[in-house]
């Protein structure tokens, strides 16, 4: 079936390209980058306000933590809906709805007087953030030439990592000066600027410059419910495993496994139904096309994305805990140590982005994973007598590794994939990264408690000990090993002379 022609008018993709010339693709990337920065900042900055929120609403730590966990769960699941929303409503409408939802969630969370409303606002923000985050990757892969995709990924990545690097520091100042409510209002200026740019530069068309099809296939609600059930059961199961409730955790993990199996079966079923009718069925299109996994590079890319997410988000939990409870450093010291690494990460991403236009992605990703694994392994050498400069150096090595991975992974995974599958591919890669991240936080927490118990120690006591440091060292070694294993999958990102065709359902 021929693709529908793009709608005439000043906001179609072709019209915007003609109006703004060669610079248009960069203006388009800038427009969606600011909104993505707002969504990422929303995911991390609220953590500094959890203690004050817990005191204000008289909550226990577990209930207060759902302000962060609810956001992450909603964001992870909603990523799968991005291709369907773009195809049905186009870039601009989808993006603007997400920005409005993110803005309203921030305002509602800031003015709410009851905790359930705060939690609902965070879930709304998470839903918007999940839909937005795959969009820049889709634009980079479809709007930029191959020899510009690395530079575009580097510039985008530099802006995106600065948001979580600077957000907590700025958020801490705001909490001290204006209280926890001010945290929620931080997204407002980013959302407003992003919406203004969207009206100017984001097209009303769908990916590929085709018209958005409001009468297209309905959303795969069954698949979305199965994915949601599986994700929530998995995350809650890991939380309860962390809290010492093995029976409840086991039941939830069984539900997660069954939901995952049901999701795969259902997605393949509706894909076969669509193929049987030649795509003319009015049934739902699959949220996840398993044709993607017929491409070796993409399949290996999802493995790397999952492991990389596990290590990245796990380290965001493990390193601050290690510095505060293992090395007995104050929170201000921890912030000072990690902030330079954040700036170096941003600079590395910009540099590696340019390299990605000329160097094989599998090589850059493998170097990044090696540096990341080395950073965790070197943390074993750190103790209470170690110079802070050494600690900063080891943290910087890890951030340089991340800088090699971030602009290269999407490119290496998606090159060779059929252009029609790029929107789904971008959403799946982001979904696997976030799912790995959510698992990584719980995994590091479980491993740490297990090794602390084995050494006869606990984080409940303020004083550190050699046994506590040994427990941290063992967890660092496990995370380093996980990163090292990912190098095997990363090497499979290398391109072949003849790309492997996707497997048929």
Provide the low-confidence segments as ranges: 498-505
Mean pLDDT score: 82
User: Main β-sheet, in a few words?
Assistant: none
| Strand residues, percent | under 5%
Q: How many beta-strand elements?
A: 0
**CATH topology term of the largest domain:** Growth Hormone, Chain: A
Q: Cα distance, first to last residue?
A: 20 Å
Question: In sequence order, what are the helices and strands, one letter per element?
Answer: HHHHHHHHHHHHHHHHHH
Concise structural overview:
It is built from 18 helices and no strands. With 505 residues, it is mostly helical.
Question: Your description of this structure?
Answer:
This protein has 505 residues and is mostly helical. The chain folds into 3 domains: 1-217, MFS general substrate transporter like domains (Growth Hormone, Chain: A); 219-284; 289-497, Growth Hormone, Chain: A. It contains 18 helices and no strands. It has helices spanning 13-20, 24-45, 50-56, 61-78, 82-111, 115-132, 135-143, 146-178, 181-185, 187-201, 221-243, 246-276, 296-326, 331-355, 361-378, 388-414, 422-454, 466-491. Helix 7 (135-143) crosses helix 17 (422-454) and helix 15 (361-378) runs antiparallel to helix 18. It is globular, with a radius of gyration of 22 Å.
